[in-house]
Specification:
Chain lengths: 334, 512
């Protein structure tokens, strides 16, 4: 036991002595990415090829990255945080984990797609939609509004993913759009419709395609990633009425620089590059996402943002997830 | 202890919780009816899976060792493969294939193939190979002479089971029970896909919402839940270490099963292979073919395959060697202290991977606050020390079980005889001890190899700094983003690597 302790002591001591040397030697820019390698891996390699700035990307789920970063605090090696859901960027910003971005970076994106205080900006967007089985239903049979999805006529036909970040952010927006009581009642009415629960959005799209459920409540781009000849799954946005429907919400992926980063310039270069024309086109044309910079076209298979009657949602509403989690727990959804 | 200390630190001094959910007290959490409901379901799930996987696994192990039927023995080889498939992928394919729009005729198909019993099915199929491997290793050196003696003395099959088999199998069965039950307690993938709310469900929600204090309290609940399992395993294992190994046993004669038992065995094996191997392969192949049909761009696979093989092979060697130390220690120590030490080896498997990884991370952070060297934590994270520790704690039990079972069966009189004959120690080890331990080492290697191939949460959190790109990560990443063509190809490659692992260790396991 004594030998073991002395070995442990030696390892720790040598690690402590080596730490500054290891940290100083031409370190790459450390990026914590909650965005999948499938979506951004090639893009980040291209950034290095274009700028010569080496990037060390550490992938994980967006929630786990937020948890890790908050636990690590100033000890974190992360310089840049690139997350799937803006809700978690908001959470990090409110804990002073993110630095204020240079003004010239903030103005690169549409004002709707950035933090009011300029601590993070959106890089691309995903529309909340219904995915439906076009062999089982026609668009006319689909609900005319998100509220209508809780109608008993859809009993046994729906899927959802209450554990998913986009779901929780959307419900947070609903609490602000509809109020707490109406949102709770709507969720209860949805529960009475016995929805099938899935752990993630992609599984819902797959389930619709397989004919397991008729309607899923997801983000739009999973359908386009699903490569299958003669697909039966199709996306549906709520029709534009006199006022924008609460179902038509754009969720943002975004990026921020950690407040303790010593590589601010390189980090800013990455943020600038990801909001540049080339990266924005990649998000749009390869990932089927919505670009956040005006003037960049959307993919031909994706309805342009101008055609959508988007609900007026503040970013701070999407990041107000705490009371939503409480509500979901009270309803036994989590 | 290290992850528990890290979690304790997070409980006493919680990191920021931005979503402002008040952390519950430990007592409040334990007495909460919701927690008790989840705890009850977790234990019921572990119990049901163990009740199914243990007899089935030991039966398959016996068939693998003793049956004269080539078909049955090859099917036994196929029943090992589900262990390599990530449980969430198996659960997803089962949910889709046996659900309302799946392969079953409409009249037979359930409205939804989710919930408790589908989770029991999937987890039984995933854990059954662990039992089979452990059981086959324990049966590797059964003595035909002893069986004959039992038969000559008038003992029937039941008496042979009680007198010849059970004393040699009770330690393996105790370890198998622990491995199976702790696997179920710590699994999240299958239960999440099959919508079965258990303790890990709540735990992942806590981690996902930055509630590390709550996650730490739930870790305590999970460890409490594991206590009855440890007690059951001790009961199963019995009080005495029996030295029952024969140095050069005459292999028992192959047995011909009666037609009805033969048919029943084939049916059981085919069911396991259909659900655990054919369904996932069909689904993964379908995803890949759809990608080919639509000219989807596939990510390069070979570098990932080679990296997976290299990382998992190194991990396997390190883990098996590391398992030898506690096995030798417990073998010499025995008694009460040995059992406590042994329980500690298994306790690591009770913690879900994500919690174990966060525990280690938090411990390193606490250490980083104490060591006045800038960049200490980042250097530790980047060095791979935490990853090695994570793998060790997560899979030491798997590696230990078969090595310890093999050691326990070695008769100490063999060593004494070698000494009396003045044989050098190395010759005794090379010619007597190593051949006796070989089935245990081989079983240990394949158990760990197959477990490492599909490991994800520890690799993601602690291996990210090392830039590891494994097949398990590829599947998770592509499946999450609906890049099913890539996930399918990576899944098939993963099964290929698992097949390779099973083939490589087959001669040692079979002919030791």
């Amino acid at each position: 036991m004594r030998t073991l302790l002395s070995v442990l002591r030696s390892v720790l001591l040598s690690t402590a002595l080596l730490a500054p040397a290891l940290a100083a030697a031409d370190d790459p820019l450390v990026v914590y990415s909650g965005r999948g390698e499938a979506l951004v891996g090639e893009l980040l390699k291209q950034f290095t090829a274009d700028t010569g700035i080496e990037v060390d990307v550490r992938y994980n789920g967006t929630p786990q990255i937020a948890t890790q970063l908050l636990a690590e605090g100033r000890q974190s090696p992360a310089d840049v945080v690139f997350l799937q859901d803006s809700g978690y960027l908001g959470a990090l910003a409110s804990n002073e984990t993110l630095a204020k971005l240079p003004a010239d970076l903030v103005v690169r994106v549409d004002p709707r797609f950035r933090d009011d205080a300029g601590r993070w900006i959106g890089t691309s967007g995903r529309l909340r939609v219904l995915v439906y089985d076009s062999e089982a239903l026609t668009p006319a049979q689909l609900p005319s509004s998100l509220a209508d999805l809780a109608d008993p006529r859809y009993r046994g036909m729906i899927g959802w993913a209450p554990g998913n970040g986009s779901f929780q952010a959307h419900v947070s927006a609903l609490r602000h759009l509809w109020g707490e009581e109406q949102t709770r009642e709507w969720l209860q009415a949805m529960q009475r419709n016995a929805p099938a629960t899935y752990p993630r959005n992609s599984a819902q799209v797959q389930a619709v395609e397989a004919g397991e459920i008729d309607i899923g409540w997801v983000n739009h781009y999973y359908l386009h990633q699903l490569r299958k000849p003669g697909m039966r799954a199709a996306n549906y946005s709520f029709p534009a009425g006199a006022s924008a429907d609460a179902g038509n919400v754009l969720m943002l992926s975004g990026i921020g620089i950690t407040s303790h980063s010593k590589k601010r310039e390189d980090a800013a270069a990455l943020v600038r590059w990801l909001t540049g024309d080339r990266a924005q086109r990649y998000f749009s044309l390869e990932n089927y996402e919505y670009p956040v910079r005006p003037g960049v076209p959307t993919h031909p298979d994706v309805p342009p943002i101008a055609e959508l009657n988007l609900a007026e949602v503040r970013q701070s509403w999407l990041t107000d997830v705490g009371p939503t989690l409480q509500m979901l727990r009270e309803l036994d959804l989590l | 202890m290290l992850p528990l200390l890290g979690l304790l630190d997070a409980w006493l001094d919680p990191p920021p919780a931005p979503f402002a959910l008040a952390p519950p007290s430990l007592v409040g959490l334990i007495t909460d009816t919701r927690t008790l409901e989840l705890l009850g379901r977790t234990l019921a799930l572990a119990g049901c899976v163990a009740v199914l996987a243990l007899p089935l696994g030991f039966w398959f192990a016996w068939v693998e060792r003793r049956s004269d039927s080539r078909l049955l023995r090859w099917l036994c080889f196929a029943t090992l493969l589900p262990v390599a498939i990530p449980s969430y992928i198996l659960a997803a394919t089962v949910r889709e294939s046996l659900g309302p729009a799946g392969w079953l005729p409409a009249a037979l198909a359930p409205q939804s193939f989710t919930g408790f019993w589908p989770a029991v099915l999937v987890l039984t199929i995933v854990t059954l190979p662990y039992v089979q491997i452990l059981g086959a290793a324990a049966m590797a050196r059964l003595s035909g002479a002893e069986e004959d003696a039992a038969r000559l003395l008038g003992g029937g099959a039941r008496a042979q089971l009680a007198v010849v088999y059970w004393p040699r199998l009770r330690m393996s069965s105790a370890y198998a029970l622990l491995i199976v039950a702790l696997y179920v307690i710590s699994d999240f993938g299958a239960v999440a896909v099959l919508d079965t709310q258990v303790l890990t469900w709540r735990l992942y929600q806590a981690v996902d919402h930055q509630q590390l204090a709550e996650a730490a309290a739930l870790a305590a609940v999970i460890l409490i839940a594991a206590v009855p399992l440890f007690a059951a395993a001790r009961f199963l294992r019995g009080g005495n270490d029996r030295r029952l190994q024969v140095a050069n046993p005459r292999p028992p004669a192959p047995v011909r099963l009666t037609p009805s038992v033969h048919l029943l065995t084939v049916l059981l094996q085919v069911t396991v292979v259909m659900v655990g191997v054919v369904l996932p392969i069909a689904t993964l192949s379908g995803w890949t073919l759809d990608g080919l049909a639509t000219d989807a761009r596939f990510a390069p696979l070979w570098p990932t395959v080679l990296e997976t093989v290299a990382v998992t092979l190194i991990g396997t060697v390190v883990l098996v060697l590391c398992a030898l130390l506690p096995a030798l220690y417990v073998d010499r120590l025995r008694g009460g202290r040995a059992r406590w030490f042994e329980d500690a080896v298994y306790a690591g498997s009770a913690l879900p991977g994500v919690l174990l990884a966060f525990g280690l991370l938090l411990a390193a952070l606490a250490l980083g606050r104490m060591v006045p060297v800038e960049g200490f934590y980042a250097a530790v994270l980047g060095s791979g020390i935490l990853l090695v520790l994570g793998y060790l704690m997560r899979f030491l039990a798997e590696a230990y079980a078969s090595v310890r079972s093999a050691l326990a069966l070695v008769d100490p009189r063999l060593g004494e005889t070698a000494l009396l004959l003045d044989a050098p120690r190395w010759r005794f080890r090379q010619h007597v001890l190593l051949p006796l331990l070989m089935p245990g080492f081989a079983a240990s290697a394949i158990l760990v190899w197959l477990a490492l191939i599909k490991e994800l949460p520890v690799t993601l959190l602690l291996g990210g700094a090392m830039g590891l790109d494994t097949l398990a990560f590829r599947i998770y990443d592509r499946y999450s983003e609906a890049f099913y063509h890539d996930a399918g190809a990576a899944g098939l490659a993963l099964l290929g690597v698992a097949l390779l692992a099973a083939f490589v260790t087959l001669p040692w396991r079979r002919h030791a």
